[in-house]
Amino acid sequence: MAFDYVKKVRICEVGLRDGIQNEKGAILTVEDKVELLRGMIDAGYKVIEVGSFMHPVKVPQMANTDEVYKAMQAYDIPDDVELRALIPNKRGVDRAVACGCKKVKLNVSASLGHNLANLNRTPAESVAGFAEAVDAAKSNGLEISGSISMAYGSPWDDDIPIDEVKKIIEAYMAVGITEISLSDASGMAYPSQVYNICTEVRKAYPDNTWWLHFHNTRGLAIANIIAGMQAGMNQFDGSLSGVGGCPFVPGAAGNVATEDVIHCLDEMGVETGIDNDKVIALSRRMVEMIGHAADGYVLKAGQSKDLKLPLPVRQPKK
Amino acid sequence: MAFDYVKKVRICEVGLRDGIQNEKGAILTVEDKVELLRGMIDAGYKVIEVGSFMHPVKVPQMANTDEVYKAMQAYDIPDDVELRALIPNKRGVDRAVACGCKKVKLNVSASLGHNLANLNRTPAESVAGFAEAVDAAKSNGLEISGSISMAYGSPWDDDIPIDEVKKIIEAYMAVGITEISLSDASGMAYPSQVYNICTEVRKAYPDNTWWLHFHNTRGLAIANIIAGMQAGMNQFDGSLSGVGGCPFVPGAAGNVATEDVIHCLDEMGVETGIDNDKVIALSRRMVEMIGHAADGYVLKAGQSKDLKLPLPVRQPKK
């Protein structure tokens, strides 16, 4: 037996997109988001999901995404920082181009049941329909990536065979997308499965770039990340303070907290390039902005390195 | 790279001891505890920590432990079920003998600072002092085991070198104890460390029996359990509903929830012999008895296998 894992990873901060998109309380203002984004860049993040170009009435928290991108143009953003947005289709590309967003991401559900219910199409058929968006992105010089939600299971399916996930990956590759996120919005992934899926897709499509996105719905997100790292994966999403729920189980935990992930990686000697003290401060700001605590651990318990009690001096025996 | 792990594990339920020992609310009655114990045996647990023989004024939740053991004698307990109690010293053995408890466990902190502060002795000196208790246990036909708390780090120490942990293990072995629990009450363990420590002690002391006890203080308990399983460990503690706090960080999470652990193991195809549906029902009773929710996930989110939405039928194209 061995315990090998990658020693350098990239973390994408998704708190401003998947984290807050379903928050029912205070809408984060452009100023709030700019404050957090500047803090993230200062903390060392190189990949940040800024928001999404969905219908503003359907997702009010994301309605000011265009304005956030425009506001960020006032600041000096290092060339190696990627500010990503989720888009539903070609209209999302148009909005991205108009506001200066240079990297977009499409999404499809791996669940046949989920996709049939929403769109009356198989997942691979939906991805084939993304060709127009991909062409528009590329002709405008935008980078474009894709994600596959419920890649590890869904409430609609007894099981999602790896071959079905591979069909979706191949559909993405057929329209020219090779940067792909395998996402567990339903919180059903478990470590041995993650290891097996990641090993399989890395072997089958060695030139693709991969992201893993885990929710901590059943307490397994960090175990899943480590299983992914044991399979050689090196890009993971996290959400400040753990904000973001499980869409299928009201009240259950959602996104894994970025500061919990980085705390574990710091302890394991894995390089992230991100200063977790700064992430923790940003998570506290996020909690203030959304008006309630989320499910992260380190915000409550502190980092192990910060837990220090004075060492007593041994007294002489009497 | 590989993802190998043991495929059969034993779970010890510690909710009635480490779980509730610091609960400040309702004291669990003998009847409450007997109800949970009988439920645990019915669910398939083979190892259960019933309570402790500490000073009743210092730990009121444990004051009725003797009565619980006596009350359990009214029931048919299978021979392969071990009802364990924590003891501080030889007086604990005397109480165990008097009430029919057949398996006891000693504990020492691996933290030099912690042990000096409490007892003005090194951990190994404390363990050497257990000889009287071990002799009393063995001469009365009791099994006796030992645990080492803070084996992975403590708030008092920058680091706890593995050689210090090995000295404590050897002190236990010198007094005749070879069943040893490596415990993380401070919630500072992390997966690569767990793998390394477990690999090292299994190699150095191949005839010992090991338990691992993790708190979920920083969200890493299940990742640590899996790392332990990857190092060949096969005995782990869990606490119904996750009851039990972190003694050093008020408000932080404590013991890992047994039902969360078994849910993960079930998904990974690991045999526990325990029916998690029954564990979940017991956790709900525990929450009723203590009067507040604990930090477990599956009680809120449900098991993945129970999350089923109806699969829609594909509609013909128009």
Explained architecture:
- The structure is a homodimer of 318-residue chains.
- An eight-stranded parallel sheet of chain A has the order 7-6-5-4-3-2-1-8.
- Chain A contains 13 helices and eight strands.
- Helix content of chain A is 40%, strand content 14%.
- Chain A has a single domain, classed as Alpha-Beta Barrel (TIM Barrel), CATH 3.20.20.70.
- Chain A is an alpha/beta fold and 318 residues long.
- The radius of gyration of chain A is 20 Å and the shape is globular.
- Chains A and B meet through α5, α9, α10, α11 and α13 of A and α5, α9, α10, α11 and α13 of B.
Distance between the termini of chain A: 50 Å
Please, how many helices of chain A?
13
Question: Biggest protein-protein interface?
Answer: A-B, 68 and 68 residues
**Total number of β-strand segments of chain A?**
8
β-strand percent of chain A reads 5-15%
CATH topology of chain A: TIM Barrel
Structural class of chain A: alpha/beta
Mean pLDDT of chain A: 94
How would you characterize the largest beta sheet of chain A? 8 strands, parallel
State the gist of this model.
The structure is a homodimer of 318-residue chains. Chain A is of the alpha/beta class and 318 residues long.
